[in-house]
Amino acid sequence: MIYPHTATVWRRREEGRTVAWTRTELGRCRLEPTFGAKPGDRGDESARSADLICKSRGKPFGKGDMVAMGTVGGDVPPSDAFRVESVSMVSIGGAPLHWEAELR
Fold it and tell me: Could you tell me the pTM of the whole model?
Protein backbone atom coordinates (compact mmCIF):
# COMPACT_ATOMS: atom_id res chain seq x y z
CA MET A 1 0.00 0.00 0.00
CA ILE A 2 1.42 3.39 -0.95
CA TYR A 3 -0.19 5.29 1.98
CA PRO A 4 0.07 2.86 4.95
CA HIS A 5 0.38 5.25 7.88
CA THR A 6 -1.78 7.37 10.15
CA ALA A 7 -0.56 10.80 11.27
CA THR A 8 -1.71 13.06 14.09
CA VAL A 9 -1.61 16.73 13.15
CA TRP A 10 -1.88 19.70 15.51
CA ARG A 11 -3.04 22.71 13.49
CA ARG A 12 -1.61 25.93 14.89
CA ARG A 13 -4.01 28.80 15.68
CA GLU A 14 -3.01 32.13 17.07
CA GLU A 15 -5.40 33.56 19.62
CA GLY A 16 -4.18 37.03 20.43
CA ARG A 17 -0.67 36.59 21.77
CA THR A 18 -1.03 32.88 22.52
CA VAL A 19 -0.91 29.75 20.40
CA ALA A 20 -3.61 27.09 20.55
CA TRP A 21 -3.66 23.71 18.80
CA THR A 22 -6.43 21.75 17.08
CA ARG A 23 -5.69 18.02 16.95
CA THR A 24 -6.68 15.97 13.87
CA GLU A 25 -5.91 12.41 12.77
CA LEU A 26 -5.16 11.76 9.11
CA GLY A 27 -5.24 8.35 7.44
CA ARG A 28 -3.73 7.44 4.09
CA CYS A 29 -0.31 8.97 4.78
CA ARG A 30 3.27 7.94 4.13
CA LEU A 31 6.23 9.14 6.18
CA GLU A 32 9.77 8.93 4.86
CA PRO A 33 12.04 9.88 7.78
CA THR A 34 15.73 10.75 7.73
CA PHE A 35 17.63 10.53 10.99
CA GLY A 36 21.17 11.71 11.49
CA ALA A 37 23.40 14.37 12.90
CA LYS A 38 25.63 17.15 11.66
CA PRO A 39 28.66 18.59 13.45
CA GLY A 40 28.05 21.68 15.55
CA ASP A 41 30.10 24.07 17.70
CA ARG A 42 29.06 22.24 20.87
CA GLY A 43 28.84 18.71 19.56
CA ASP A 44 26.54 17.04 17.09
CA GLU A 45 23.20 18.66 16.20
CA SER A 46 20.17 16.70 15.11
CA ALA A 47 19.59 16.48 11.37
CA ARG A 48 16.24 14.73 11.79
CA SER A 49 13.78 15.44 8.99
CA ALA A 50 11.00 13.71 7.08
CA ASP A 51 8.80 13.95 4.04
CA LEU A 52 5.09 13.38 4.62
CA ILE A 53 2.69 12.50 1.82
CA CYS A 54 -1.08 12.45 2.52
CA LYS A 55 -4.14 11.81 0.40
CA SER A 56 -6.64 14.58 1.12
CA ARG A 57 -9.05 16.73 -0.86
CA GLY A 58 -8.43 19.79 1.30
CA LYS A 59 -5.15 21.13 2.67
CA PRO A 60 -4.50 18.84 5.68
CA PHE A 61 -1.67 20.85 7.27
CA GLY A 62 0.17 24.14 6.94
CA LYS A 63 3.52 25.68 7.75
CA GLY A 64 4.07 25.77 11.52
CA ASP A 65 1.73 22.85 12.26
CA MET A 66 3.12 19.88 14.20
CA VAL A 67 2.96 16.21 13.12
CA ALA A 68 3.54 12.89 14.90
CA MET A 69 3.14 9.50 13.29
CA GLY A 70 0.43 7.20 14.56
CA THR A 71 -2.48 8.04 16.82
CA VAL A 72 -1.23 10.38 19.53
CA GLY A 73 -3.49 11.88 22.19
CA GLY A 74 -3.20 15.22 23.90
CA ASP A 75 -4.18 18.82 23.32
CA VAL A 76 -0.62 19.92 22.60
CA PRO A 77 1.96 18.24 20.37
CA PRO A 78 4.63 16.08 22.05
CA SER A 79 8.19 17.37 22.21
CA ASP A 80 9.38 14.87 19.57
CA ALA A 81 6.76 15.89 16.97
CA PHE A 82 7.94 17.20 13.61
CA ARG A 83 7.27 20.82 12.57
CA VAL A 84 5.85 21.41 9.06
CA GLU A 85 8.30 23.60 7.13
CA SER A 86 6.68 23.60 3.69
CA VAL A 87 3.56 22.22 2.01
CA SER A 88 2.79 21.60 -1.65
CA MET A 89 -0.07 20.01 -3.56
CA VAL A 90 0.54 17.46 -6.31
CA SER A 91 -2.34 17.51 -8.80
CA ILE A 92 -3.54 15.86 -11.96
CA GLY A 93 -5.67 18.07 -14.17
CA GLY A 94 -6.08 20.60 -11.34
CA ALA A 95 -7.53 18.06 -8.88
CA PRO A 96 -5.37 17.29 -5.82
CA LEU A 97 -3.70 13.88 -6.01
CA HIS A 98 -1.93 14.24 -2.67
CA TRP A 99 -0.24 16.77 -0.39
CA GLU A 100 3.47 16.75 0.43
CA ALA A 101 5.13 18.34 3.45
CA GLU A 102 8.74 18.78 4.45
CA LEU A 103 9.11 18.22 8.19
CA ARG A 104 11.91 19.13 10.62
Answer: 0.83
